[in-house]
Amino acid sequence: MSAPSRNQKLLAWVDEVAQMTRPDRIEWCNGSPDELDRMFDLMVDEGLATMLNPSKRPGCYLFRSDPSDVARVENRTYIACRNREDAGPSNNWADPAELKATMRELYDGCMVGRTMYVIPFTMGPLGSDISRIGVELTDSPYVVANMHIMTRVGNGVIKLLDDQADFIPCLHSVGKPLAAGASDEGTWPCAPLEDKFISHFPEERLIWSYGSGYGGNALLGKKCLALRIASVAARDEGWLAEHMLILKITCPEGKHRYVAAAFPSACGKTNLAMLIPTLPGWTVETIGDDIAWMRFDEEGYLHAINPETGFFGVAPGTSQESNPNAMTSIQRNTIFTNVALTEDQDIWWEGIGYDPPGELIDWQGRVWHDGSREPAAHPNARFTAPATQCPALAPEWRDPRGVRISAILFGGRRPSTVPLVHEAFDWNHGVFMGSSVGSEVTAAALDLQAGTVRRDPMAMLPFCGYHMGDYFRHWIETGARQDPAKLPKIFYVNWFRKDASGRWLWPGYGENSRVLAWIFRRCEGKAAARETAIGYMPDAAGIEAPAGVSDADLQELLTVDKAGWLREVASIREHYATFGERLPAELQQQLDALEQRLLQL
Predict the structure, then answer these.
(1) Domains in the chain, please, with CATH?
(2) Is 267 a catalytic residue?
């Protein structure tokens, strides 16, 4: 196919990559529905995709990846910058020149027997000052199909590229060339683990990925561009690229506010983004469930866009109880990866809310029966669904100006110590709260003892493209440049408290709207709060308790546990030590001040 672009930088790059990878042909993607259908037809014909029952799941397809290619491969993910210290202790560093030399050898001829697809895409609405253009070169039609859903692909982007040279080059290959006339024969194409590389060159705004065809390893607009590269651009340009959902809350009086929230994995992020409130008169609508790009406008208020156009959600545990809006979103036009297949060509996973309907085919293509030792769906099984299919999607989700953020929430899975909700004293105290985010791990974790807190500051530890100490500094300096009265309020929430017997104290799900209501009223200046050692907190009367939550439960949920928090201080000190001299002094001062306030209780 002839190139539709006049962008000489892009044309030269495509030609350079083609000479290195030697694909059989090059195809420029236009983002059309016909193109997407053709990708699915191709993969069904090759045995890589299964069309699901069109009467139950119209336009839906199931894929099974290789067992070695089921998740992010963090030990094969690299930040390649000139100064090793700039990558920080939480990233794998590589010398840019050495890494490129290694990867060029792998890329040499890697697309033989395949088509190289050129995917022009934007992260964010076309024409938005906050958006970014990327171009992904890939030999995977699975990637093309997912990028169609997750980003804005096609000719509209080409027109923008004709007017500007700037774009982020994203190179991807599954790393499995084909002999003449050969095919994948129904086997998921990928390279062995030792040959997988997900590499970021932040100083060049460049992404190279090799060997994995799965998720964020291959959909390079997602974590690679939207967070690792964008976080560096945000630092350099004075904005924020964050692993945050964005939601719209409307109160009974009809006023609305927008909230961004960052939680580590398995802490209910997508569930909150699509929450259906139980509190009468309140509504919640979705702007985005995973990424927020935020800039201060000319008046000094923080505005956020969701740069994605789809949901790449974890399937196991998603049900009508936990997230009915997500279940509606995936009824059609959805890609399912590594879930189980039912006898009538529908999908099933653990936690879907009903028993498996007879004999299944598990995520590895094996016959599976209820009671089998291994799960039917991989724990990280995914769905890729268009955002427009979410019944709670707010109309302004695609507004190029973004939405004004009134509050930022941090949170984690903490069975003890951390209360249901507390509010930061000011911006720097809020940065401190975000810098200490963590979740307690369970007995299922192999690398940490059960009950240990796994720190994931601002839910960005795996996704920040530079030193986390410098990242904290960027947050502090960003706030210092603004009018404090216009900054969003910052809160910490915890839906996961238990009592001494292990009983959940808070029901979660839709009942979390009761906490959101207090946060909303605090942003209006209408809700009362008491000052505590850890921040502002509601009295028990400030949260309307749901059925099943007693006065004693609510009191426990809103009490400062002095002994527990002193242990927390010691744990945060240990956490902070990993950042060395790059930890901002302001955060150390916040920690010291917290300890002193606790000792005075």
Answers:
(1) 8-47+76-237 (3.40.449.10), 242-309+395-599 (3.90.228.20), 310-389 (2.170.8.10)
(2) yes
